[in-house]
Amino acid sequence: MSSSLTDNRPGNLVERHDNLPRHPFDTENMYSICDDQVLSENMSSSPTTDSGVSNRVLTLATLPLYLGGFLGPFGTMMVISIYPELRESFNASTQAVNWAFSGYMIPFALLLTVSGTIGERFGRRRVIRATFITYALASVLCVFAPTLTVFVVGRLLQGAANAFITPLLIAGLSEVIDPSRLGRAVGVYTGFQAIGGAAAPFAGGVAAAFNWRIAFAVIAVVGLVLATQPPQGEPRPAAAAPPIKPLLKPRMILLWLAALTAAAGPAGLPMIVGLYLRDELFISSTATGFILLFGGISGAIAGPIFGQLLDTWGARRSSFVACLSSLAFSLPLGFITGAWVFAVAWTIVGALVGFIVVILQNLAAIAVPDNRGGALSSVLCFRFVGHGLGPLLWVPMFAWSPSWTFVIASGLGLVTLTSFASSAQLMQQQQDAE
């Protein structure tokens, strides 16, 4: 079946067909209504297309990519809950032990500027295999570290390896998933990331009840297993090296701004939430941890749903819904005085912030088709710069007014929205020109 629809926008009379995949930037949602026959045809279609891409989001081929997305944030956040055990094991101060986290983040953020392009140049398959092997060996070093210095070296190597994981795995997904389902795939990937980040402190605490080194041993085993299932992507000869110039196009600069403001603003709210619960509502550390966990879990659960909405609505409409709804629910957080009401509100906000992350990673995956890894890694670099800048802005402001801190941090989402919409529009214009 191929009933025709006509785009009646001025100056753009184009015949379209229901059974063709929607473009990610379809802002008019021309295909939001379909009949039962079309739906039946889509559901019964072959799992792969003639070009080798899959119509299914979760398969044996894509599962290792999602698990890699879980491993990155899991390894990043796991040390948060075992500082006391690290202090005791290495007879060190909290400031010294904090290098287990900072030593991970510094090389991670720095290498994100080039990791994607390196992966595209030398081949995703080869680079990701080396990445997971390095991650596993670094974890083994942490397991047997006799001193804090050796442990921090292991963490530094983990962080350096992690810089290659997300940009290359999402780039790999974009090559094997049908474009009409890429939003759903990125949503699932983002869900795995959220679960990894949310579960890591809990898993670290459980391991510490026996021996904190067990957690790193498990990571080492998982890393070695994932090294056997790298994504597609072979080395490119010098003549076909991934281009750098498209990374400096306005559409990419707008995505960098979106990543920076989203991370410092809506996605940076957990830090403000933690302060508010402890210092203003006088909630225990355990209860605070659970409330923050609820936000992470809701984002993980909603990720695939939001990915499907992104495929259906297109990037611009999804951006308006995600950013404005997140703003509406996060603005009042600083005025809530009941713990249970706050927990419910934060659970909703956590899910909506996850929608913003799905849009960001999806747009980065398709912004520069000839250098997907480079585009993703550069966007993620600005994202983590935003996470680093957020506390520098909000902690002093929180001492002045907790309520206004929530308002201003949430308000940065408007800059994110404008950047998303403008970048998506430029990509649409580029697509139309081609």
Report on this structure.
This protein has 434 residues and is mainly α. The protein folds into 2 domains: 181 residues, MFS general substrate transporter like domains (Growth Hormone, Chain: A, Up-down Bundle); 192 residues, Up-down Bundle (Growth Hormone, Chain: A), CATH 1.20.1250. The chain is built from 18 helices and 2 strands. It has a two-stranded antiparallel sheet with strand order 1-2. The longest helix has 32 residues. The radius of gyration is 22 Å and the shape is globular.
Rg estimate, integer Å: 22 Å
- CATH homolog superfamily of the largest domain: MFS general substrate transporter like domains
Number of domains: 2
Give helix and strand order, one letter per element, not per position.
Answer: EEHHHHHHHHHHHHHHHHHH
Q: Architecture of the largest domain, according to CATH?
A: Up-down Bundle
- The stretches of 5 or more residues where confidence is low (pLDDT under 50) are 1-48
Residue share in helices?
over 70%
Number of contiguous helices: 18
